[in-house]
From TrEMBL:
Family annotation (Gene3D superfamilies): TonB-dependent receptor, beta-barrel domain, TonB-dependent receptor, plug domain
Membrane-protein topology: Multi-pass membrane protein
Domain TonB-dependent receptor plug positions: 46-164
Name assigned to this protein: SusC/RagA family TonB-linked outer membrane protein
Residue ranges of every copy of the TonB-dependent receptor-like beta-barrel domain listed in the record: 329-779
Organism field: Kaistella yananensis
């Protein structure tokens, strides 16, 4: 391409052919170093960093219509994969930083808010799915920094192996009071097209072919309805006049809205920030929602020249209604494939239909419409968090900081099944109530020293940290209620069980960090931390973790500094030792939960393993950062190799030993790959000029087990073996359909070549991984005369998704009479006149195990998604004169608006591949919103 483009404004780029140059006019510019937040709230300029750090600013996630920050990371940060197997409002995303660093251990990063560790993930227990991070208001976030390598994370020691996500919240700044008000509202739809159910006519047609193939007959639908096959179930289906679309029965219009108000300001002595937020998100399936109310106040007070006091209080309440997943008959997503379309949804009088004899549908399934109106599974979460700090300058360049940060979380859950229909019918009504109370606290004592000696800059920190989590859990269940209108536990007259326990875990550690640089030309970082974990044996409680990092910025050499176009040329390298979060316990214990003649009876609970030790991670990182034209164009390239040793795994035991498994260290795995990040400000000007920026990140990942002490571990669908990843599918390979007779075929050796229609003769083989090995994102921003367009794309290639329910939904007749399955099969199953179909001949009771686990139900998860699109207009300040407003903006936004799946067979959200399996969960949503932002 021969492109010539010239833009005459200060500091913009010239493109002439393949040369890129920067021209400056006489406008004076001031360079402000970009600052990033690293461990324990400490700050560094980008020029001082030797580790691997990626940052999302508040602008990049502004107004994104999701409930929690973990859902914002996909495609915006190199090396980070996220995905949600469910579209549950307020649910959590699986987040992976540079791969999967454990088999049984924790694989999600820890979350740090303003230097303090906080709870994350799903804290519920009553089959409710929630996310405690969703209780935090995303509009309070200033930026999100992902720490990925040893020198960035080792200061967090024992828990840093899966990465660290550092969230910095907004603070008050010196100046007059400033008020901000934002609001958006819109509607939700299903993000991607899923499998459809059968219509009544299609079901009868498919069932007719399955019966004919079983009986060796050629009856028509009318003949079966007339009694050609004298079976009561068959007759009732073929004679039914109903045609129910069960998906329509459970669907509704999804909507959501968000309102946020904040104020900030301050003086030389005192700064303040306060916000209030309301968020309401509803799924497209009835009785599923998440609501949040939150309030934050953050204060800073310069008490004396040496003493600064800060406080941050956050309180929020979330309410979640969730729906069952998987094979539960109450799962509304199951109903569209398992309920017969020949059953009516309602009676002639408009009431919900079910059999008066057994309160079931004709195949013993439930009517989801009735259940969604009369049952519920909900959780209410209260989170109160405080971050109290005092910072005292002992002498010049030496500062002491004290942090005390308690976190109180209460999760109250209620499950109610009415006594009329559904799961509660057999119990005469069912109610289960539970309370989960968490009290976590974090104490830090930090001594910071920094000094500049000419060209030499030195810094050091001494850190003491203690963290404790205290959980108390209580649950009670009652059955048999006098009226379906009575839903609280005290109205259920028969006790049906109770549970209660206390879980306490703690750790404390000491750390030292050091930094040296010579004029930011040569940089050296190091850290050491010793952690002590409560649950290990005394000889194994302590772990030592460390890191070292080195950087050289050649752009600061005089010879290169004279090249005006080059502003950054930094080489970085780091290595160290981290720990992985573990929940395993090495102690032999008894459980006294059994009742033997009203005496507590003991059973074995754990097997003693005195050799159980930490999982440790050794990450190597090598990076190159390039900046051109005063960093108007930047490029980062990194190689990482993250080795996890002493993997913890549950090894199987024989039944004679009384337990199914015991915990041991069993091997080593490696995650390695490359990351590339590009940012470019192509045009930069004021409001009335054209502004255009581009960004992109691409990551590769290779996940491999390198040692496995006990040898290969195979299941019916997965394998753990040397040379493969920890999330590897191990399946028979589908070879298609025999065009001559409609039989299923598999490759005998699991790869290629000779085929067989005998499932038992086909061998299992490695068939790919859950994990995408190429993933990333791209974004662009265009603005002109107040109009602004933002687009964010994400993509992933190389991962696989397995349909865990396909043995029922693509059963080829085995379960069709009871559970119809996917209606997509119509027109694509073998018949004498359709011999090239992709699905075998249906035979009632099954066709040679055609629906057993194989790659027939394994799909490529390759995708490209427009994850967020935003178009807005900001009014000119001149038009706001006299209105009292400083700014006013209106916008429209779409989230997950477009998704391209490269595998035409895939009918699930492609980001499910982070989990690997589908579970008939709520569909992932796409949202369309209108919003307003104003400040005054």
């Amino acid at each position: 391409m021969n492109l010539k483009l010239r833009v005459l404004s200060a500091g913009v780029l010239f493109f002439t052919g393949q040369l890129v140059m920067a021209q400056q006019d006489s406008v004076k510019t001031t360079t402000i170093d970009e600052v990033v937040v690293v461990g324990f709230g400490q700050k560094k300029t980008v020029q001082e960093v030797t580790g691997s750090i990626s940052t999302m600013t508040a602008k990049s996630i502004e107004d994104v219509p999701v409930a929690s920050v973990d859902k914002m990371l996909q495609g915006r940060v190199a090396g980070v994969q996220t995905g949600a197997a469910s579209g549950q409002p307020g649910g959590f995303s699986n987040v992976r930083v540079r791969g999967i660093s454990s088999i049984n251990g924790v694989t999600t990063p820890i979350y740090i808010i303003d230097g303090v560790r906080v709870a994350n993930g799903d804290l519920t227990t009553n089959n409710t799915t929630a996310n405690i991070l969703a209780n935090m208001n995303p509009d309070d976030i200033e930026n999100v920094t992902v720490l990925k390598d040893a020198v960035s994370t080792a200061v967090y020691g024992a828990d840093a192996g899966a990465g660290v996500i550092v969230i910095t919240t907004k603070s008050g700044k010196k100046g007059k009071p400033r008020f901000n008000l934002s609001f958006n509202t819109g509607f939700n739809q299903q993000a991607v097209e899923s499998h459809r159910g059968f219509t009544a006519g299609e079901y009868k047609e498919y069932l007719k072919d399955g019966l004919n193939n079983l009986l060796g007959q050629n009856y028509t639908v009318d003949q079966y309805a007339a009694g050609a096959f004298n079976n009561s179930t068959v007759l009732s289906i073929f004679r039914s006049q109903a045609d129910t679309n069960w998906a329509d029965i459970v669907r509704k219009d999804g909507y959501q809205q968000n309102a946020d108000f904040s104020m900030s300001g301050g003086s030389d002595k005192f700064t303040y920030y306060a916000s209030a937020n309301m968020f309401d998100q509803n799924s497209i399936v009835m009785n599923s929602f998440f609501k949040r109310l939150s309030y934050t106040t953050k204060l800073g007070y310069q008490a004396t020249e040496k003493l600064k006091i800060t406080s941050d209080f956050q309180i929020s309440h979330g309410k979640t209604r969730t729906l069952g997943e998987g094979g539960g008959f109450a799962n509304p997503m199951l109903a569209q494939y398992f309920n017969r379309p020949t059953d009516p949804a309602r009676n002639p009088d408009g009431s919900w239909y079910y059999s008066p004899t057994n309160s079931r549908l004709s195949n013993n399934m439930f009517n989801p419409g009735y259940l969604l109106e009369n049952n519920y599974n909900q959780a209410g979460s209260l989170r109160a968090f405080a971050n109290l700090g005092a910072e005292y300058e002992i002498i010049d360049n030496l500062t002491y900081k004290l942090v005390f940060a308690p976190e109180y979380i209460s999760v109250e859950e209620d499950t109610y099944w009415n006594p009329i229909h559904g799961d509660g019918y057999a119990y005469g009504g069912y109610q289960r109530t539970s309370v989960n109370r968490y009290f976590n606290f974090n104490i830090q004592n930090i001594l910071d020293y920094s000094k500049k000696f000419g060209m030499h800059n030195v810094g050091a920190s001494l850190i003491q940290e203690a963290y404790k989590s205290d959980r108390k859990f209580l649950r009670a269940t009652g059955i048999t209620v006098g009226s379906p209108e009575l839903t609280t536990l005290s109205n259920f007259v028969v006790p049906y069980g109770y549970e209660g326990n206390v879980d306490i875990s703690s750790r404390y550690g000491y750390a030292v960090t050091a930094h040296y640089d010579y004029d930011k030309l040569v940089l050296v970082d190091g850290s050491y931390r010793r952690d002590v974990l409560s649950q290990f044996l005394p000889s194994k409680k302590a772990g030592d973790f460390w890191s070292v990092g080195l950087g050289v910025d050649l752009a600061r050499l005089n010879a290169i500094r004279e090249i005006e176009q080059i502003s950054l040329m930094k080489f970085r390298a780091s290595y160290g030792k981290l720990g992985n979060q573990v929940s395993a316990n090495p102690y032999a214990t008894y459980s006294f939960l059994a009742n033997y003649d009203d005496t507590a009876a003991a059973t074995y609970n754990r097997v003693f393993n005195p050799n159980l030790s930490w999982e440790t991670v050794n990450p190597l990182n090598i990076g190159l950062d390039l900046g051109f034209f005063r960093n108007r164009l930047t490029l980062s390239a990194e190689y990482f190799n993250k080795e996890t040793k002493d993997l913890i795994y549950n090894l199987p035991l024989s039944r004679a030993q009384g337990l199914a498994s015991y915990v041991d260290n069993i091997g080593t795995l490696v995650n390695k790959g490359y990351e590339f990040t590009l940012k470019a400000d192509i045009f930069r000007g004021d409001r009335n000029q054209l502004n255009w920026s581009l960004g992109a990140n691409v990551s590769t990942l290779e996940n491999e087990i390198t040692e496995l002490y006990g040898g290969t571990v195979n299941t019916s669908t997965t394998t753990l073996r040397v040379g493969e990843g920890v999330r590897t599918f191990y399946l028979r390979k589908w070879a298609g359909v025999d065009s001559a007779n409609g039989d299923p075929l598999w490759f005998i050796n699991g790869v290629d070549g000779e085929t067989t229609n005998n499932y038992n003769l086909a061998q299992q083989a490695v068939q790919g991984s859950f994990i995408s090995d190429l993933y990333g994102g791209a974004n662009t921003n265009l603005s002109y005369k107040g109009f602004d367009l933002d687009l964010q794309f994400t993509f992933g290639f190389g991962g696989k998704i397995y349909d865990d329910w396909a043995s029922y939904t693509y059963s080829d007749g085995q379960y069709t009479l009871s559970y119809p399955g996917y209606g997509d099969i119509m027109g694509d199953y073998w018949t004498p006149t359709n011999t090239t179909a992709n699905n075998p001949k249906p035979i009632i009771n099954g066709n040679k195990r055609s629906n057993s686990a194989s790659t027939r139900f394994l799909y490529d998860a390759d995708f490209i998604r427009l994850s967020n699109a935003r178009f807005g207009y900001t009014f000119d300040k001149g038009l706001l004169t006299g209105s009292g407003l400083n700014s006013f903006q209106v916008y429209v936004m779409a989230n997950n608006a477009w998704t391209h799946r490269f595998d035409d067979r895939l009918k699930f959200d492609p980001e499910t591949n982070v989990s690997g399996y589908t579970n008939l969960a709520l569909p992932v949503l796409k949202s369309f919103l209108f919003g307003v932002n104003m400040s005054f």
